[in-house]
Specification:
alpha+beta, three-stranded mixed sheet, 14% strand, globular
Length: 136
């Protein structure tokens, strides 16, 4: 089930992050570049919550990352967000709801493209969170 829903979990980072192994309560993710491991480490709590939500219970307690040089998938511009892309206004509103810690973490990212992807990833997560609250 987790493998089938991975693209919806990882959102705009699909093609950059793959499930390599799950053992007991640890998931090992493979990334296409070492900088992804570093940046995702800062977001590991959010990733754990999303993964455990899909699984249905809190089984994943730790996320580890590995760099696989042979994994060489190009992220196409059209895959940055799913078809229900956020408008610039929506993205701005959702991004403004970030905590100071989240904003500081994003501002630490020097590569603008990577920073933009993480902003969209955050906004996509927020949008899904809002939609799930509306449906309940």
């Amino acid at each position: 089930m987790l493998f089938n829903k991975w693209n919806s979990i990882i959102g705009p980072l699909q093609g950059k992050v793959y499930i390599k192994q799950i053992h007991e309560n640890v998931i090992l993710l493979s990334v296409t570049h070492p900088c992804w491991a570093q940046e995702l480490l800062m977001m590991s709590n959010m990733l754990k919550r999303k993964i455990n939500k899909v699984i249905g219970y809190d089984t994943i307690k730790e996320i580890r990352f590995s760099y696989q040089s042979f994994v060489n998938h190009e992220l196409k511009k059209e895959t940055l967000l799913p078809d229900n892309s956020l408008s610039d206004t929506q993205l701005s509103l959702l991004s403004s709801s970030m905590t100071n810690q989240e904003t500081d973490a994003l501002n630490e990212i020097r590569e603008q493209e990577l920073q933009d992807i993480f902003k969209k990833f955050y906004a996509t997560c927020k949008k899904k969170q809002i939609q799930s609250h509306k449906s309940t």
